[in-house]
Input
Amino acid sequence: MADSSHGHTPAAWTGVIIAFIGFCVAGAFMVMGSVAGFWAGMALLALAAIVGGIMSAVGLGKPKRAELQMKSTATAQPAGSEA
Output
């Protein structure tokens, strides 16, 4: 389980950091009674999902299962052998 890289990617870290800031902003403005500030925090939450998704799509997220299988198959065969 330690080698699964679950959440240990730039896309995941960036998305979580932006979402955390969004929750803090929304929570602070909710206590202060500012509706516009609350919705600004909610907009940051939406931005976190978008940024995380884009970063994952360009290759900064967790590799897909098929990519992992191709890499493991390529490294499992000894050099010079034909399959």
User: Anything to note?
Assistant: The helical segments are 10-32, 35-60, 65-76. The radius of gyration is 20 Å. The mean pLDDT is 83.
